[in-house]
Amino acid sequence: MKKISGNKLLVKALREEQVDTIFGYPGACTIDISDELYKQDYTKVILPRQEVALVHEADAYARSTGKTGVCLVTSGPGATNLVTGLATAYYDSVPLVCFTGQVSRHLIGNDAFQEVDIIGITRSITKYGVTVRNREDLGRILKEAFYIARTGRPGPVLIDLPKDVMGELGSAEYPDEVNIRGYKPNTHVHVGQLKRAVKMLSKAKKPLFLAGGGINIAHANEEFTKLVDMTNVPVVTTVMGRGAVPTTHPLYIGNLGMHGAYACNMAVNECDLLFSIGTRFNDRITGKLHSFAPNAQIVHIDIDTAAISKNVQVDVPIVADAKEAVTKMLEYVTPCETGKWLDTIEDWKAEHPLKMKKKPIMTPQDVIETINRIFDEAIIVTDVGQHQMFTAQFIEITEKKKLLMSGGLGTMGYGMPGAIGAKIGNPDTPVISISGDGGFQMNSQELATAVLEELPIISCIFNNNNLGMVRQWQKLFYGKRYSMTCLRSGAACRGKCGEVECPVYTPDFMKLADAYGAKGIHITKKEEIEPAFREAMKSTKTPYILEFDIDPEDLVYPMVKPGGTLEDLIMDC
C-alpha cells in the first residue's frame, strides 16, 4: 500500500469518522494539517477568533447534534486555551476529540518555543489523552479517540500531535475496529436489579423520578416520557435534566436544588422512593448530604460506575445507559397509586408558585415568557449567572426545543460561542443565546465568526450593569458590600461609590454590533420585547444582539441558604 504522511492520514480519519465540521485555529505546529484540510472538500473548517471560544463551539455542536465535536489547535498557548472548554465538556459528558499540535519529538521536554505538556495539564479533565510518539500508532490512536469520546459516559479526548510524527510517511490504513484492553463500556442492563427497582416503585406511596442530564445525553426523552405516563409518577429534574420530559407535562414539577422550585425541594424531602436516572447528585441539588431525601430509598441508574454512591449512598445501583434502562423498564412497570401524593404536590405549588413579582418595568421572566410564546422550535443556549437560572426556571422545553448550558463547571463565556456551534450544527433551527452583560463580554469577539459564517443567531443580553449572581450573594449574605461586581466601576468612582456619578456603561453593545457587521436592538420596556424578537426573526444571514435593561435588584428566588438543606429556602427578600 502507498505510504502517506500523518497529516494526510488525519484528514482521511476525519472523513472515515464522518466529521463534517471541524473548529480550528492554526499555528506553526499544525500548519501542515491546515494545508491538507485545504486540499479536501468533505470536512468544513470553521475559523473562530479564539481557541477558548472554539472549544465551546465544538461542544455545543456536539450537544445539539449528537455527533462528536472536533477541534484543532496549535501547540503552547493554542493548547492551553482549550483547558476551560475541556473541563466544561468533561463535567457535562460531551463527546469531543481535540487535536493539539506539538513540537517535534526531539524538542519535547527542552522548553522549546510554544511547548507545553498539554497531556499532563489536562489529565484530570479529559477522558483520555495521549501524545503520538510513533507514526505507526497514529491510525489506531485516532480510531480509539473517537470511540472513547462517544462510548460509555461520553467525554473529551485529547490527541497531541508532534510535528515530525505528522510529517512522517507511514501506512495509509485506517482501522475498522477498536479493541482496547481495559476499556469495555457496559452495554447491558442488569435485569435483576432493574426488576428489583421496579418492584420498589410499585410499592412506594410517594415515589419521585429525579431526571438528570444523562437522559438528554442518551436521547432517552421519548422513552422516559412514556415511563412517566405509564407509572403516573411525578418528575423533578436537575438543571441539566430540564427537558427530560416536556416542561408542559402535567407530572413535571420543575427543577430542584439551590434555585429549585419550592414544590420540587419539598417533594424530594418527603418522597419515600427517589428513582434517579443520569445525575451525579452534586452539591447544587443536594444541599447538606445528610439531610438529602431523608425519608427515601434511592435507586440510581447511571452509565458511569464511579458516579454511583459517590456523593449519596443508594439502595439499588444500576450501571446502564439511560435509554437502554428506561426502554427495558417499560416492559415491567405498572401504574402507581399516586393520587394523594400528586394532590400534596399541587398544594405545594399553590402555596409557593414559581414566579417573579409583577413589576411595571421589564423583568427576565417577561423576556423568557416571550420566547416561550413566539418560538415553537428553538435551541436556547445560556451563559452562566442569574440569567441562566432565570432561564432554567421559566423556559419551556418541548420535543422541538433544546436547552444547552455549562452545568458542572459553570463557565461564563459559553453563551455566544455555544450558540454559534449549535447553529452550525442545526442551520434550519432558530438559535437563541441568553447571556448576562458580564458573560457576553468574555467571548464577544465571536460576533465576527457569526457574521462571517452568516449565522442569524439571536443573542440576548440581560444587562443589569453587574456580575449579578455574585452581587446577589453580596446582598443577601455579605451586608451589601458590593465588591468587584459593578461593571460600571473604574478609576473615576473607585472608593467613591454613591458619592459621584457612575461612569457610562461600556461597551455600547449597539455600537459593538454595528462594528462587527451585526445588528442590534436595545429594549427598555415590556412592550418592546416581542417586536424586537419579531424583527430579529426576519434575518436569514445576520446575527442580532437584543440588549434588555434589567433591574440589578431582580434576584433569583427561591434560593437555598449556603450550607443549608433543601428546606432552608429563601423565598424572597
UniProtKB/TrEMBL annotation:
<comment type="pathway">
    <text>Amino-acid biosynthesis; L-valine biosynthesis; L-valine from pyruvate: step 1/4.</text>
</comment>
<protein>
    <recommendedName>
        <fullName>Acetolactate synthase</fullName>
        <ecNumber>2.2.1.6</ecNumber>
    </recommendedName>
</protein>
<dbReference type="Pfam" id="PF02775">
    <property type="entry name" value="TPP_enzyme_C"/>
</dbReference>
<dbReference type="GO" id="GO:0000287">
    <property type="term" value="F:magnesium ion binding"/>
</dbReference>
<dbReference type="InterPro" id="IPR045229">
    <property type="entry name" value="TPP_enz"/>
</dbReference>
<dbReference type="GO" id="GO:0005948">
    <property type="term" value="C:acetolactate synthase complex"/>
</dbReference>
<keyword id="KW-0460">Magnesium</keyword>
<dbReference type="GO" id="GO:0009099">
    <property type="term" value="P:L-valine biosynthetic process"/>
</dbReference>
<dbReference type="Pfam" id="PF02776">
    <property type="entry name" value="TPP_enzyme_N"/>
</dbReference>
<dbReference type="InterPro" id="IPR012001">
    <property type="entry name" value="Thiamin_PyroP_enz_TPP-bd_dom"/>
</dbReference>
<comment type="pathway">
    <text>Amino-acid biosynthesis; L-isoleucine biosynthesis; L-isoleucine from 2-oxobutanoate: step 1/4.</text>
</comment>
<dbReference type="InterPro" id="IPR011766">
    <property type="entry name" value="TPP_enzyme_TPP-bd"/>
</dbReference>
<dbReference type="InterPro" id="IPR012846">
    <property type="entry name" value="Acetolactate_synth_lsu"/>
</dbReference>
<keyword id="KW-0028">Amino-acid biosynthesis</keyword>
<keyword id="KW-0786">Thiamine pyrophosphate</keyword>
<dbReference type="InterPro" id="IPR039368">
    <property type="entry name" value="AHAS_TPP"/>
</dbReference>
<dbReference type="GO" id="GO:0050660">
    <property type="term" value="F:flavin adenine dinucleotide binding"/>
</dbReference>
<keyword id="KW-0100">Branched-chain amino acid biosynthesis</keyword>
<feature type="domain" description="Thiamine pyrophosphate enzyme N-terminal TPP-binding">
    <location>
        <begin position="6"/>
        <end position="119"/>
    </location>
</feature>
<feature type="domain" description="Thiamine pyrophosphate enzyme TPP-binding">
    <location>
        <begin position="383"/>
        <end position="547"/>
    </location>
</feature>
<dbReference type="InterPro" id="IPR000399">
    <property type="entry name" value="TPP-bd_CS"/>
</dbReference>
<dbReference type="GO" id="GO:0009097">
    <property type="term" value="P:isoleucine biosynthetic process"/>
</dbReference>
<dbReference type="GO" id="GO:0030976">
    <property type="term" value="F:thiamine pyrophosphate binding"/>
</dbReference>
<feature type="domain" description="Thiamine pyrophosphate enzyme central">
    <location>
        <begin position="194"/>
        <end position="328"/>
    </location>
</feature>
<comment type="similarity">
    <text>Belongs to the TPP enzyme family.</text>
</comment>
<dbReference type="InterPro" id="IPR029035">
    <property type="entry name" value="DHS-like_NAD/FAD-binding_dom"/>
</dbReference>
<dbReference type="InterPro" id="IPR029061">
    <property type="entry name" value="THDP-binding"/>
</dbReference>
<dbReference type="Pfam" id="PF00205">
    <property type="entry name" value="TPP_enzyme_M"/>
</dbReference>
<keyword id="KW-0479">Metal-binding</keyword>
<keyword id="KW-0808">Transferase</keyword>
<dbReference type="GO" id="GO:0003984">
    <property type="term" value="F:acetolactate synthase activity"/>
</dbReference>
<dbReference type="InterPro" id="IPR012000">
    <property type="entry name" value="Thiamin_PyroP_enz_cen_dom"/>
</dbReference>
